């Protein structure tokens, strides 16, 4: 009789342990889903994402480079990227389309922006980040300037 009571008590402990583990796992998954939803849901609509053109980079014209590519900070949190597109001699490349590609929600996402008369560009992302964000900048070039594809790691924490 004592063995039956002991076996019943161990069985109840096992069921209790399994139920407790399931509750903890469901809570963790739910909390993670809520954090992802809150941090990315309402900042930039999906219509701001574009497909990278399927065209080769131009090899005609003057060489260009990305200069001073850094994060844009709001209240100490990185929310986007800014920088310049300039020639090797330092002249700005104006009215150029710059494509910025990064990884978000299990997909590569691309946003496009246009440089101003100083070669300056900026784009705001639908998330903020800490650590280092891998980012690919692409300028396809034209008859005047060569195309460029460059990878960056942009810090998400203000210095």
Q: Give me the secondary-structure category.
A: alpha+beta
CATH fold call of the largest domain = Immunoglobulin-like
How many β strands by DSSP?
A: 7
The order of strands across the largest sheet is: 4-3-6-7
**What fraction strand?**
35-45%
Total number of distinct structural domains: 2
State the share of residues found in helices, binned by percent. Answer: 10-25%
CATH first level of the largest domain: Mainly Beta
Question: Mean pLDDT, nearest integer?
Answer: 80
Please identify, by name, the CATH architecture of the largest domain.
Answer: Sandwich
* Shape verdict: elongated
User: Can you write the helix and strand succession as a string?
Assistant: HEEEEEEE
The first-to-last residue Cα distance is 70 Å
Instruction: Give me the number of helical elements.
Output: 1
Rg over CA atoms: 25 Å
Are there runs of 5+ residues with pLDDT below 50, and where?
A: 33-42
* Biggest sheet record: 4 strands, antiparallel
């Amino acid at each position: 009789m004592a063995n039956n009571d002991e076996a019943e008590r161990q069985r109840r402990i096992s069921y209790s342990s399994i139920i407790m583990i399931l509750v903890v796992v469901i809570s963790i998954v739910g909390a993670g889903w809520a954090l992802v939803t809150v941090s990315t849901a309402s900042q930039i609509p999906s219509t701001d994402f574009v497909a990278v053109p399927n065209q080769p980079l131009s090899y005609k014209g003057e060489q260009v480079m990305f200069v001073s590519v850094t994060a844009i900070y709001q209240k100490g949190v990185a929310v986007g990227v800014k920088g310049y597109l300039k020639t090797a001699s330092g002249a700005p490349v104006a009215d150029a389309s710059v494509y910025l590609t990064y990884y978000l929600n299990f997909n590569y996402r691309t946003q496009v922006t246009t440089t101003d008369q100083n070669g300056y560009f900026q784009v705001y992302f639908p998330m903020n980040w800490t650590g280092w964000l891998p980012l690919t900048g692409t300028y396809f070039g034209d008859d005047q300037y060569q195309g460029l594809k460059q990878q960056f790691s942009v810090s998400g924490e203000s210095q």
